[in-house]
């Protein structure tokens, strides 16, 4: 079976891709980037917004580019096009915009870490650190969406030397089944092609995970860790996937927490995960969902 074309996987090699050193390779990458851009509603939304901004500024500083009538018509058409794109692709545009932001942030932090070695690092993924006396034989990783265009699938294979790992995605379908102008995610079909177990729980960004789905994902992590490493991710590895791992800690790793009478299980679990990945963010509705999950665990009202 041939590898998916958008990944261009070389299954016989576990090494990271070499640096671009030929004009042909540069042309191929430029072509792929342009194809992704022209197929993306985010690209056209930025074009509309950029043109609107440019024309508006030119009017303010009295630079005549178009006749007044043509200018008004153009501004109206661009405004309607921008509104149409937002209305019909708001989730997709928000996804690609935020993905662009984290890629820029990752690049900025990488540069700053070289200039200022003691600056805070924001990794694409982090390993959850358990105590030395833990019986955990495999690694649990929390991170952002793996991008084929950044070879994250190969990076994970290299990091996890025996290459035996599974993936839990907390994403809506459009987030990892479509190419975008800011990058191409590793598709579920790609994980299957690599014979890597993959499970997906569909939740919108910043939304709480319902108790049944949370417990389903928690049990998946627990079962997979008995046999292999596990990579849990959402879009940026801060909210949905963090909530899932916090749920796992609450159910199966309470011995890792410094629990005392009167202490809050949820907050202790959040603090534990934050030590490994400082940028996690659990909003109020997600925290309430975790509190509800804690109640069900203590009352044994959910199938364990």
From TrEMBL:
Keywords: Hydrolase, Membrane, Protein phosphatase, Transmembrane, Transmembrane helix
InterPro entries: Dual-sp_phosphatase_cat-dom, Prot-tyrosine_phosphatase-like, Tyr_Pase_AS, Tyr_Pase_dom, TYR_PHOSPHATASE_DUAL_dom
Name of the protein this chain belongs to: Tyrosine specific protein phosphatases domain-containing protein
Organism: Protochlamydia amoebophila (strain UWE25)
Domain of life: Bacteria
A Pfam short name: DSPc
Molecular-function GO terms, alphabetical: phosphoprotein phosphatase activity
Domain Tyrosine specific protein phosphatases: 212-288
Membrane-spanning parts: 43-63
């Amino acid at each position: 079976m041939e590898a998916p074309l958008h990944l261009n996987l070389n299954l016989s090699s576990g090494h990271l891709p070499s640096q671009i050193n030929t004009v042909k390779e540069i042309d191929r990458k430029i072509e792929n980037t342009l194809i992704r851009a022209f197929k993306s509603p985010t690209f056209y939304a930025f074009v509309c917004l950029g043109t609107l901004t440019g024309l508006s500024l030119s009017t303010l500083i009295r630079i005549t580019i178009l006749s007044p009538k043509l200018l008004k018509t153009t501004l109206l058409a661009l405004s309607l096009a921008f509104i149409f794109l937002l209305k019909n692709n708001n989730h997709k545009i928000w996804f690609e915009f935020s993905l662009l932001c984290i890629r820029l942030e990752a690049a900025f932090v990488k540069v700053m870490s070289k200039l200022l070695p003691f600056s805070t690092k924001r990794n694409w993924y982090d390993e959850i650190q358990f105590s030395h006396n833990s019986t955990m034989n495999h690694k649990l990783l929390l991170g952002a969406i793996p991008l084929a265009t950044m070879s994250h699938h190969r990076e994970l294979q290299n990091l996890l030397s025996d290459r035996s790992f599974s993936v839990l995605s907390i994403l809506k379908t459009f987030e990892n089944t479509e190419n975008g102008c800011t990058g191409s995610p590793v598709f579920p079909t790609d994980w299957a092609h690599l014979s890597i177990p993959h499970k997906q729980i569909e939740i919108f960004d910043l939304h709480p995970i319902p108790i049944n789905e949370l417990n389903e994902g928690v049990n998946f992590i627990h079962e997979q860790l008995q046999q292999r490493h596990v990579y849990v991710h959402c879009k940026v590895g801060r909210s949905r996937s963090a909530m899932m791992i916090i749920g796992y800690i609450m159910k199966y790793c309470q011995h890792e927490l410094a629990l005392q009478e009167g202490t809050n299980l949820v907050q202790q679990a959040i603090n534990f995960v934050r030590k490994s990945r400082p940028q996690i963010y659990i909003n109020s509705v997600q925290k309430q969902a975790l509190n509800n999950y804690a109640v069900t665990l203590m009352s044994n009202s959910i199938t364990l």
